[in-house]
Structure formats: C-alpha cells, structure tokens
Amino acid sequence: MSLKEQLLAIQSNEVEAPSNTFELVLEMTANIGSPDPELRDELIYSTFSKWILDGVLSAEEMKKLLHIILDDQHLFYGIGETGTDSVFTRAFSVLVIPLILIAHKKRPFLQEEDIHELKERIFNYVEQEKDLRGHVDEKGWAHAVAHAADALDDLAQCPELDKSDLLKILDLIRAKVTVTQTTYIHAEDERMVTAVMSVLDRNVLNNEEILLWINSFSDLLVADSYIDAYAQKINLKYFFRSLYFRLHDLGKYPEAVQTLLQLSK
Q: Exposed, middle or buried, 224 (CB in 10 Å: 0-12/13-18/19+)?
C-alpha cells in the first residue's frame, strides 16, 4: 500500500495512529515536498499536525523528527532556487516547526541549546529563501514566506530568545516585506504581522525601538526600477496597514500607530 493510500485509510476510518507510527513519520518526512498537493498538504501535513499536537509521538521521536526537518535535505533542500518544486520540501519542512514548538510549550522536551540551534537554522533559512510564490497552479500551496512567518511567530514566544534575537526576527521580517521580485497576494502580510505581534508580546522592546524599526523600512526601498519600486510599495502598504490595525486594537504604542497611519496612505 502506498503512503497516500495508508494516510487516506487512516483519515477516512478515523483510526488511531498505527503501531509503526514513527516508521510512517519517516516515510512522510521523505515525501514532505511532494508536488501532489493532496498528499503533501491534506495528508502528510494534516497527519503531522494531529499526531504532534495530540502527543502521539514521544519526546525522543519529536526530537528526531526536528533534527531531520532542519537538515540540508529538508529545510535547506535546493535553497536559493526559484520556480522549482524544491520549494515544497522547504516550505512544508518549516511548517512542521511551529507544531513541534507548540508541543514543546505544552510538555517541554527541548533543552535550551536545542532552541538556540533551532533558532539559528530558522534564521538562516529565512535569510536564504528566494522562492516567494504563494499558490502554484496544479501543485497547490508553496507559501514559503507565510510558513516561515509561522515559525518565527512560535519561535518569538520561546523565553530562551533574548532581545537581540527578537530584533533579528523583526529584521528578517522587514527584509521579506521589502522584496522587489513579487507582490504578495496571499495574505503573507497578515502572517508576518502575527510574528511581529509575538515579538511585541514579549514586552522586551520599548516604544522607541519599535518606532525606530518601523522607520527603518525606508532604508531598504529602491527607486531604480519602476516595477521593483511598485512591488515594494504595495507590499509595504499592506504590511503597514495590517500592523496598524493590530497595534491600534491593542491600545499600546501610540506613536508607532500614528506613524503607521501616515506611512500606509
């Protein structure tokens, strides 16, 4: 029976995880970048989500899974490529990380050094990811930027990260917002703002530092190409508007809110 058939049977019968759960996990991990959207998204990722969050996997099994997900054949597979199917392996590998961090928050099993290693791998991945496609015709979601933002969101909530780490997360988000090669159309701005809010929820950064970060976006703007400048302008406008409403509803950071209001016009 193929992997797809096994996972379909498990989902359709609503049966508990089989006795060979981790063997199946390894097979799922090996196929996490399948160009088949049903297998990749609806079956593999959905099964990972259920098993990880329901505590089906042991702490040791989740640590093994995390080690695989972070390796060069998964999170960094084909890194730097654009327009190829390798993005699915990277994008769905990074999407497993929030699940593991959520499970760790409920029942800690990662050591501080594990969190810092994870942090460095995620930071390196976000810096190097160049494929910014959202939905790909016939192959479904790639959405690497949104998935990376989800990982940064849960990573920012880890108490092991200090102020410099949180500032790095904001810098990574700024770099992805101000890209010139695409205009985001699949709610990437909302996912990135969610990560920003998790940084701010740590209450480590003060008003001046947040305002300085917002104003620093202008340092990355380009003017040598109309198309590049247009893409940046649209991405920045949507991002600032999303952040404005989230901060406005929070009732904090009034200076930042006013600045965002002006910049998003």
A: exposed
Condensed to tens digits (0 to 9), the pLDDT of residues 2-52 reads: 999 999 988 887 666 788 899 999 999 999 999 999 999 999 999 999 999
- Same domain, yes or no: 29 and 152: yes
Say how far apart CA 196 and CA 213 lie, in whole Å. 11
Closest CA to 91 of 138, 131, 137: 131
User: Range of 77's domain?
Assistant: 1-161
What is the pTM (predicted TM-score) of this model? 0.96
Q: What is the DSSP string of 110-177?
A: --HHHHHHHHHHHHHHHHH------EETTTEE--HHHHHHHHHHHHHT-TT--HHHHHHHHHHHHHHH
pLDDT tens for residues 208-251? Answer: 999 999 999 988 887 667 878 889 999 999 999 999 999 998 88
Domain termination residue (choose one: 161, 190, 218): 161
Tokens representing 42 are 């609806």
Alpha-carbon distances, residue 54 vs 46, 100, 104, 153, 225 (angstroms):
12, 11, 12, 21, 50
DSSP 74-103: TTTTTTT--SSTHHHHHHHHHHHHHHHHHH
Q: What is the count of structural domains for the chain?
A: 2
Q: Rounded to an integer, what distance in angstroms lies between the CA atom of residue 96 and that of residue 244?
A: 29
Residue 167 domain-assigned (yes or no): no
Of 41, 53, 51, whose CA–CA distance to 17 is shortest?
51
Contacts of 101 (CB under 8 A, 6+ apart): 151, 154, 155, 157, 158
* Angle, in degrees to the nearest 10, between helices 163-177 and 188-201: 160
